[in-house]
Amino acid sequence: MANASCFACLGRPLLLSKNGEPAAVKTRKALAIMGYLSRVSGMNAPRETLADLLWSNAERPKAMQSLRQALRQLKTAEQAVGHDVVHASSNDVKLDQSEFSSDLSQVMKLLEQDDAEGYLRAGELWRGEFLTGFEELDPEFTDWLQVERERVRSDIVTATFKHLNDVSTSDGGRKTEAGARFLLKIDPALEAAHRVLIRLYLKLGQRERAEQQLKTCEREMHLHLDAAPDRQTYSLLEARNDAGINNKEFLQPGIGGAVQPPVSNADGIVRLPEIFIVSASLAKSNANDAIYLREEIVSGLSSFRSFELFQSEYFGEANAPQTALVEGYDMGSYLLRFRQDERSGKVVVQFEDRENGQIVFNEIVDLALWDGILPAASHIVSRVNAHAIEKLRNPSNKSVFARWCQADALLWEFTPQSDAKAMRLLDELEKSNRRFSRTYAGKASIIMKQALHFPMNDRTSAHGLSDLLKLAEQAIMLDPWQAVNQRVYGWALILSNMPLEAKRAFQSAGRLSSSDPSNLMSVAEGLAFSGDVVKAREIAERAYDLFSYVPRVFYEYMANISFAEENFEGALQHIEKSAGTSLKGLTTRVAALVCLGRHAEAIQTLRRYEEHRLSLLSASKLGMRDPEDWRRRVNFFQNQQVHASYDKGAELVKRFLFEGELSV
Fold first, then answer.
1. Which domain does 505 fall in, by range?
2. 371 confidence band (pLDDT: 50, 70, 90)
3. Are 333 and 312 in contact (CB under 8 A)?
4. How far is residue 258's CA from residue 339's CA, in Å, rounded to a whole number?
5. 619 in a domain, yes or no?
6. End-to-end alpha-carbon separation of the chain, Å?
7. What is the pLDDT of residues 640-663, one digit of tens each?
8. Is the pLDDT of residue 287 over 70?
9. Separation between Cα atoms, residue 197 and residue 480, nearest integer Å
10. Does one domain contain both 557 and 506?
11. Mean pLDDT of 332-346
12. CATH number for the domain including 587?
């Protein structure tokens, strides 16, 4: 087995190849089979058990047929990635324990190492709860999953605390701190883990950090549990109150870190993470590439408009940012250091978190290994952005920009439930700061998704499509230099039948953030819909070069670009690699099959999605939306010939979606 997991089940599940690349699996229930088997005794279960668990509402013959289809999908995916771990007989299905590996099993092995590196690596592997996003596959599976998640969490917490009961400072506290912070990543309100850190900091003589940890404990417990820490937690500090600190302040409501309601920010000032750029020892000779790399990285970070950037040279040596911890700035404060090694010519880029002194990464960039400076710069920019933004997605942070980061993460989940949560956050943002432009872009994005991807669901927002352009224009008027605002404006213009104006908006978005591959992919898709197919392909290929990992959702973007080129075979190949569950993606798949003359296969595809159709319909209590209106709006293509080709698939999906399988 390679070091990479063949099955990643922490967070959104993925089947991985031996080099760590994700494989396309057509349905979530196929992956759910692996998730279930990985947690049962012997990794083995009867076929009937799996059928009853995942197709509990279907008659047994239909459920068994669905199980066979799911197993075939798994086998196809396994052949593509080079794994062969799922074995099915006439009676049962099992995982080959000698070949099967998962990120959860790796986490448990790392915890046994009992060292800082193991805990840090375990934290990287923890991408979320066991089988995230699989909560509503089937009522029976949901009941099992809720219990199993608690068991997974209990196993991990128990395995970690086995090594943390004795607070060790022999390595400067690195191991103990890493272990406790790993637990807090799993459960920010885990009081016992906060106690470990408080005890550690007191043992190291770092009383201020211990007091700050108590405040953090109060804040997290108030937010997640609506509770206060136990008296035993406060007593840790009271017992060592040699600095004259009045610990009663920690017990008073609203003091010592208790979460307060969002504060009105009428002046429109939005605090952002701060990054200090430090350029040390860049070689005086042959440094052009190093300087160019630094400038591209700074430019890329600037284009996100998500950071306060400072050039340290402006402060002078006396006032330059010092290597000291920064406390009290909840947005994040960082140092980004550049240094060129004179002997090798390589550029050292180090990113440091000033809140805890952590070296987030130390990258030695050998430009000879990169296809130009731009991909290398984009790689560094993505790493910086991912770390800083991920920290702000903690719900305990109530600042304006942190709330946006939390809403933005939900917008990428593409479910009605996540959109509803995002809309609540955006409503809160609008009340606290009416001049924060991305609030309106986010709301416009949700309205578009509801109309196209979830046409049968109750609406999350009181706004309708008639307000879409108004919201997008409001975002642009507040901040025309924000790439996401220009992108959303472009999509709103497409839906408003203004392709030329949309094209200009997409072009502006591409210029404003040219090193962000996610932005470029969305721009490329928008240009393809607008009719500029050549430019769309060029930008998409540039985006692919910048990705270190291509999210599956972007294969759907590529499918639409191929469709715009009337490369229907290419569109079909890309959509097969995508997540494959969105209504828009299904329409693209069906349209490509119809245009290839594979009408019978298009019908079979729709019938395979019968279960997905029912899940879309089940949430509707208001009756049907207008089928013809959905058919018109789902077709973004502005080229008349391509539009007509896509409409053939949209018509078929419309009949299936709104009238049911028999009409097809």
1. 393-513
2. confident
3. no
4. 41
5. yes
6. 45
7. 999 999 999 999 988 887 776 545
8. no
9. 45
10. no
11. 86
12. 1.25.40
Same domain, 348 and 407: no
- Cβ atoms of residues 85 and 96 within 8 Å: yes
Q: Would the pLDDT of 255 be above 60?
A: no
Contact 75, 86 (CB under 8 A): yes
- CA distance linking residue 523 with residue 543, whole number of Å: 10
What is the DSSP pairing of strand 274-279 with strand 333-340? parallel
At 438, which CATH number?
1.25.40.10
CA pair distance 481, 24, nearest whole angstrom: 36
Which helix H or strand E contains 352, and what residues bound it?
Answer: strand 347-353
Final residue before a domain boundary, out of 251, 282, 300: 251
Quick one: tokens of 161?
């605390």
Contacts of 350 (CB under 8 A, 6+ apart): 335, 336, 337, 339, 359, 361, 362, 363
Q: How many domains does the structure of the chain reveal?
A: 5
Residue 661 contacts residue 606 (beta carbons within 8 Å): yes
Cross-strand partners of 337: 278, 350
Q: What are phi and psi of 125, to 5 degrees?
A: -75, -25
327 & 376 share domain:
yes
Among 189-198, 404-413, 610-619, the range with the most confident prediction by mean pLDDT is: 189-198
Residue 341 has pLDDT above 70, yes or no: yes
pLDDT tens-digit series, residues 554-610 = 888 999 999 999 999 999 999 988 865 577 888 999 999 999 999 999 998 888 777
Top pLDDT among 310 and 464 is at 310
Contact 187, 154 (CB under 8 A): no
Question: Residue 176 pLDDT more than 60?
Answer: yes
Per DSSP, helices labelled H in 60-190 are: 60-81, 103-113, 116-125, 139-164, 174-186
Q: Are residues 241 and 336 in the same domain?
A: no
Angle CA(639)–CA(530)–CA(446) in degrees, nearest 5?
120
- Quote the tokens at residue 256: 């010592």
Does one domain contain both 425 and 500? yes
The pLDDT tens digits for 491-520 are 899 888 888 899 999 999 999 988 888 899
> Are both 582 and 495 inside the same structural domain?
no
Phi, psi of 346 (to 5 degrees): -80, 155
Provide the pairing of β-strand 44-46 with 7-8.
Answer: unpaired
CA pseudo-torsion sign 428, 433, 439, 444: positive
133 phi-psi bin (left φ>0, alpha ψ -120 to 50, beta other): left
> Cα–Cα distance between 151 and 148 in angstroms, integer?
5
Q: Where is pLDDT greater, at 486 or 396?
A: 486
Distance CA 592, CA 501 (A): 28
Reading the block at residue 536, the tokens are 């769309």
DSSP for 192-242, written as a single string = HHHHHHHHHHHHTT-HHHHHHHHHHHHHHHHHHHS----HHHHHHHHTT-T
As to burial, measured by CB atoms within 10 angstroms (0-12 exposed, 13-18 middle, 19+ buried), residue 623 is exposed
Model pLDDT for residues 260-270, shown as the tens digit of each residue: 333 334 445 78
- Bridge partners for 566 per DSSP: none
Q: What b-and-e string marks burial along 275-308, b requiring 16 or more CB atoms within 10 Å of the CB?
A: bbbbbeeebeeebeebeebbebbbebbebbbbbe
